[in-house]
Every structure is written in C-alpha cells, then in structure tokens.
Amino acid sequence: MTNTQRSLHTLFRSLLAAAVLSWAGGAAAVVLDDDNRLDVTLSDGTQVTLYGEAGATRGIKSANYYYLPVNLRLSQRPDRTPEFLFLKFTTEQSAAQGGISGALMHFLMEWGLTPAQEADLAAKLKQQNRNAQLKGAVPMESEGGEAASFQIVSATLTDKGLAPSVVTSGKAPLVPGGKVATASRLTAEGAQLMAATFEKARSITDLSIALNFGYQTLTPAAKGRITFDWSKLEKEGQTFAAEYERKRTGTQSKKSCFLIFCASSSSATYSYSYEETAEQWKFLQEKQVVKFEFQETLSDERVSKIRDAFLQFFLNTMAQPEQPEAQVPPAQDDKAKEEKPNIRTGDKYTYKTSSFKKAFARKTQVFDLNYRIAVKRPYQLVGNLASWYNGVRDNPKCVASVNLNDPFFQHRDINFILDLDAKEIFDEAINYVTVNVRKNRSSGRAFEDRVTLDARYLKEKGINATVTYARGDDRNPDLYEYQAQWSLKGGNVWPANPAWEKGSWEGVTLAPPVVPRTLEVEGDLQAMQESGITRVTVQVHYPRFGQEVEENIHLSPAQGQPLVSKRIFTDRGAKGYAYRLVVNHKTEGKLALPWSAQVGDDYIYAAIPAELLAEVAVKEAAKEAARAAVTGTTEKVLDRFKDVIGGGQ
Which helix (H) or strand (E) holds 42? Predict the structure, then answer.
C-alpha cells in the first residue's frame, strides 16, 4: 500500500469514527445509506422519509430503516391535556375600555411518531420490503454550532415592544418525545395581535417553530476521485476574487471578495448568502480548484448526490451557518427533493481565515470515490401554531382570560422552570436543586417556602415547580426573593452559602452551575507509531464547582482510534480549559509538554513537536516535567491562565 493510499485510509477512518462518535448522548450510533431512501405515506396522510442503515458490504442495502423527524406537535400531560397556555389578563380599567392588558403564552412541543403511527409505518414498510425492520427515529445531532437549534419565527415575539420577555429552551430535542419549551409575556398590543391570528380563522398564525438538526449519511461510491488543489487557491485567490466579481457583476469593485480573498479587507471572517456560497463552489470547479473525475458513467441523480455531498463536506469544514431569524425556508415537493436535495442550513455562511490556512497546509487533498464518506446532512422540521390551536381553543385549561383585580388573584403562583440543560445532566452531575423563597410583608411574618426538584420530581411533574404566595393584607410592593442550592454528585453542595436574589412574577429559570462540553482529541496514529510513541495522553485541567479538576484522554496506535471524545462539566462562567500532552515513548519513557490554554474550541489535535525527540534540552525538560507529574505534586495549573480562562462561577 502506498503512502497516499495509507493517508486516504487514515482520513476516511477518521471521518467515519467522527461520524460514529458524534452520536454520543443521543440514540444508538448509526450511519445511514444515502442510496437507500424510502418515502412512505401513512394512513392519516403523514409523509415519512426513511433511510436504511449503511451496510458493511457496499452494494447490499440493509433492511434496517430509521425515519427522519416528523409529526411536530404539542406535548401532553399524563391526563392528555395539551401543554399549552394562552392566558389573557385584564384590569378593571382595561376591561372598562373593552381591551386586554396583556397575556402569557407558554407551550411545550415534541416530535416523533405515535405508537399507532409507528405500527402503521412498520406495516407499510413490510409491504415494500418483507425483510424490512423499522428501528425507530434517525439519531439526530444538534445543528447550528453556537446558534440555537430551536427557533421561534414570529414577528410579534421578536418585537421587544410587543413581547418584552421571551424565553425558550434553546435546543431542538434529538430523540422522539424530547421537549422544547417557549414562554412569553405579551403587552396589550402584542396580546391582541396574537389573539387575532389565533381566533379569526387566519390561514396561518404569527408563530412558527423551526427545529434544526443534522444527521450522518454515507455518500454513494463511484469509480473516480475528487481533488482539492488548495495550493492553487492559495496562490491565485486574489486573482480569482477579481475574476469572480467581473463575472458576477460585469465590473470590478475595490471590494471584490471571493471566499476569504478580498481586495480591501484582511478580516478574520467573511460572510456570504447561501446563494453566493453555492456560486462560489461552482466557480471553484470551473477554475479546477475542485475537480470531479468519474471513471464510469453515472446517472445525473447519482452525480448530483455526490456533488452535493462534497459541497456539504466543504461547508461543514470551512464555514459556520447563520440561522434565519424571521422566515421559514420555502417548502419543496417530493420531486424537487429527489432531484435537488436542499442542503441549505442558514441565511449566511461565515468563512474563517484560520480554516483556510489549515487547508492550504495540505497543498493537495485527494478523495478516492471508491470509498464512501460520512457527511453531516442538515434537516429542518417546521410547524405553525395554527396546526394545533384548534385542538386547544375550547379547553379552559389551555386558553382563558382573567381579571387581575379579582380577589382570587390575591394568591399568586411563583414559578421556577428548570433549564433543559440541567435536566439533561441530572443523572451525570446533579442530584437535586432546592429553592428557598421568601417575601417580606408590610406587616406580620414574612412568607417563606421551599421546593426541591430531583429526578423523581422531573419524571412525575416535569420541569416546572410552583410555590403559591398568599398575599393577605400585604401591601409591600417589593418582589419576592429566592436562593437556589444545587446538590452535586459526590455529596457536595453549590454554592455553600447561596445569595438571595430578586425574583420575577413571570417566573425564574434555574440554570445549573456547570455546563457540559464534549472534548475531541485527534492524532496521527501512523506518525506516532513510526516515532516509537505508544500512547499520547491529553491532560485537561478545568474548573468545576470552583475546584480545579483533571481529566485524561488517551490516544494509542494499539487502539486504532485516531479521534476520541470525552464529556466533561465545567463551571458556567469558564471560557475554556488548560491542557498538555504527556507522551509515552518506547525508549525515552514519559515526556510531558508545557501547558496551554484553550478558549472557545473543544477540539485538540495531538501534534508532537519535532524537537521533542531531536533536541536534548527539550527532551530532558519534558522528562523532568513528567517525573514531577508522577510524584503527584498538586499543581494549580489554572492559576496561570486565570485571565484567559476565567474564574468559573
């Protein structure tokens, strides 16, 4: 096997390993076959798209099928009450004037087939292929990077003058039955506008939600190859920018820009619309920077799939999509989806200069099409509230009006809503959270109460806890106060002495003191083996609950995994972590490299500097650092990088 072939094998093993590891935390790992897709219409008219699992043998289609997210709907309580609330409120003054003072809106959504729909789908799948097995929903990934993968699309709720307070859970649920939450307080004008779109039999309501996902598929195989000539792009980029501008507009501007090449700018990032991004990709092919060479005759549909897959691979590697704020992407009919898959994931794509510099270092990158590559595909599930409102409009538990001057409302509910991030990490890092509430009255004893949310509470009652405050003769206008204390795995509590904070009558979101991060470590196993390195350990130090914690992530040629990942929990206020490489060498023993800070990036490439083994002074310093580490000396590494990483809580 030649060096080029070995490099290609290593590359594709890395890509496939990354595809598998990316499913951690969701459903069972699975990569789908882009050539094995089925579209099924259920008896109730629901359209379902399925993909077969990628088989071990190319050309043989698997009989195991998974369906893409579908059936977006309101969640239901155990008694089948929809989890939707639109509560309009008035005062005596507004009621006398025939209007409303405002409204509260809160609802929970979920996706996935019902048991009856799953049974129907399984039966129809058997009709198409008697050996077919329905394995459930496609294990999804969150799409959008730092951006929220759950979006509210509403002119009313995005207008601070109409909806001064809008809270969402922020993340699309990756598995069927997972929930997303939205809560909003509307002004009088906002409440009337929203109610008008609900009540007047409009064709659509001014509230849509969009869930943005990603999933992995293997591209079709073909005899041929794809070549990325990064050195040509690096050398001729400025020339390409001028030529691209002339071709696009017929003139040359002083601000001619193409990818990261711009005549009058040296920015670290460059943003383009989706349409222009696609045109730039086409121009790269015209200039032979990207070359597709097929050694066999393929159908237009198959060629289109391969080209689209590598455009998506290019965008996943080089760009960051920016999600739209107030519009829903146009729908595609089934025929259009088959002829031209919609790979759009945002209004704009932002290129980073640093990504291109890494690519330029590769000079030329060759992909052998005999191997199928795992590509992350975007997928968006969109629904409008008009589709569900008719089912709740006559339910007084869901839609109601109240007068706040009614004596009944001298009792007020104080709501505490658990952040969905906290719900996800309860079993791994948190036992429970206790909230103490107090409200000073104008006379008499202060009101005091408490509530505890643990795993059992979440299972039985959900993420919302309520404390009811009886106003009585209280005329004190001050808000209530609360303090939250988290019980952590290992028996600790945080914080030890929680401060009292001012609450809000609309509710309080309880956010945990730690947030999850998934660290990915990658290395060149072949280079390690050739250098006599048996293992590389990445030592990571990070703040957790105010303490410095160490985690070790191992890379070894013997394991054959060039990319490994580890989930950690860092203090919410921490910007990053510190790390160093500890190298195990066959003859030199342990060698420890200096510590470095990592901010805003959870990917570490285990690069071994050439001078580590070549220069005696560097090698001896690394050995001494390794000996110090073995002695168990407690070293406060984070103190060195406190200004960069931050102090955590």
Answer: none
Structure tokens at 601: 């990036």
Q: What is the pLDDT of residues 204-247, one digit of tens each?
A: 888 888 888 888 887 766 667 778 888 888 888 788 888 888 77
135 φψ region: left (φ > 0), alpha (ψ -120 to 50), beta (else)? alpha
Level-2 CATH architecture, domain 515-645: Sandwich (2.60)
Could you tell me if 97 and 43 are in contact, meaning their C-beta atoms sit under 8 angstroms apart? no
Bridge partner list, 459: none
Task: Annotate 507-529 with b (16+ C-beta within 10 A) or e (fewer).
Answer: bbbbebbbbebebbbbbbbeebe
Domain range summary for the chain, segments of one domain joined by +: 3-217+383-389, 220-371, 406-512, 515-645
Total Cβ atoms within 10 A of residue 579: 22
Pairing verdict, β 180-186 and 165-168: antiparallel
Percentage of the chain exceeding pLDDT 90: 15
The answer to whether the beta carbons of residues 474 and 459 sit under 8 Å apart is no
| 542 neighbors 551 (Cβ within 8 angstroms) | yes
Q: Are strands 269-273 and 411-418 parallel, antiparallel or unpaired?
A: unpaired
Amino acid making up residue 313: F
Residues 6+ apart with CB under 8 A from 497: none
3-state secondary structure of 612: helix
2.40.30, 1.10.3470, 2.60.40, 2.60.120: which CATH number matches 406-512?
2.60.40
Instruction: Inform me whether the pLDDT recorded for 202 exceeds 80.
Output: no
Q: Which residues contact 27 (CB under 8 A, 6 or more apart)?
A: 136, 137, 139, 174, 175
The C-alpha angle with vertex 394 and arms to 211 and 387, in degrees rounded to 5, equals 30
The secondary structure of 383-403, three-state, reads EECHHHHCCCCCCCCCEEEEE
How many angstroms separate the CA atoms of 47 and 117, rounded? 11
pLDDT digits (tens, 9 = 90+) for 270-314: 787 778 888 888 888 888 888 877 665 655 666 677 777 777 777
Given a contact cutoff of 8 angstroms between Cβ atoms, the answer to whether 74 and 107 are in contact is yes
| Dihedral angle of Cα 158, 160, 162, 167, to the nearest 10 degrees | 60
Cis peptide before 495 (omega within 30 of 0): yes
Spatial separation of the C-alpha atoms in residues 443 and 346, rounded to whole Å: 56
Query: Which conformational region is residue 562 in: left (phi greater than 0), alpha (psi within -120 to 50 degrees), or beta?
Result: alpha
User: For the residues of 416-456, what is the DSSP string, one character each?
Assistant: EEE-HHHHHHHHHHEEEEEEEEEE--SSSSPEEEEEEEEHH
The Cα 447–Cα 481 span in angstroms is: 10
Element at 523 (helix H, strand E): none
Segments of 479-588 assigned E as strands: 481-488, 493-494, 501-502, 508-510, 514-522, 533-544, 547-555, 563-571, 576-585
Q: Average pLDDT over the chain, rounded to whole?
A: 78
Q: Would you say the CATH fold of 515-645 matches that of 406-512?
A: yes
Q: Tokens 């040629």, residue?
A: 557
What's the token pair of residue 188?
């009088």
Q: Which two tokens stand for residue 206?
A: 């001014």
